[in-house]
Amino acid sequence: IYALDAVGPIPEELWNLTSLTNLNLAQNYLTGPIPSFIGNLAQMQYLSLGINALSGPLPKELGNLTNLVSLGIGSNKFNGSLPSELGNLAKLEQM
């Protein structure tokens, strides 16, 4: 879904794809928060949400993605501090 001019919130249906390992939603016009349902994607290794208009705090449920190697969240409108649960991401190599 990379750079397809997608508009609006992240589709809730994506959070049911629990075997997904790579999700690239970068360079779109996505808005709103990252839902806490993101914690359902326990197999995720590569998650790219950069260059959108996502907002709000980063959900603590990102810490459930313990297989995550790369997390791209730059160029959005997030606020608040990084959740301490990100410390659970022992395999994370790039953020």
What labels describe this entry?
single chain; mainly beta; Leucine-rich repeat, LRR (right-handed beta-alpha superhelix); 4-stranded parallel β-sheet; 22% strand; globular
Number of strands: 7
Classified in CATH, the superfamily is: Ribonuclease Inhibitor
The proportion of strand residues reads 15-25%
The radius of gyration is 12 Å
What oligomerization state is this entry in? single chain
How far apart the termini lie comes to: 20 Å
Give the biggest beta sheet: 4 strands, parallel
The CATH C-level name is Alpha Beta
Give the strand order, joined by hyphens, for the main sheet. 1-3-5-7
Return the CATH topology. Answer: Leucine-rich repeat, LRR (right-handed beta-alpha superhelix)
**Order of H and E elements:** EEEEEEE
Q: Which second-level CATH architecture applies?
A: Alpha-Beta Horseshoe
How many structural domains can be distinguished in the coordinates?
1
- As residue ranges, the low-confidence spans are none
The rough form would be described as globular
If you had to describe this structure to a student in words, what would you say it looks like?
There is one protein chain. The protein is mainly beta. The chain has a single domain (7-88), classed as Ribonuclease Inhibitor (Leucine-rich repeat, LRR (right-handed beta-alpha superhelix)), CATH 3.80.10. It contains no helices and seven strands. It has strands at residues 7-8, 22-24, 29-32, 46-48, 53-56, 70-72, 77-78. Strands 1-3-5-7 form a four-stranded parallel β-sheet, with no helix packed on it. It has a three-stranded parallel β-sheet with strand order 2-4-6, with no helix packed on it. The mean pLDDT is 96. It holds the Pfam family LRR_8. InterPro entries: Leu-rich_rpt, LRR_dom_sf, LRR_Rcpt-Like_S/T_Kinase. It comes from Aegilops tauschii subsp. strangulata (Goatgrass). Keywords: Leucine-rich repeat, Repeat.
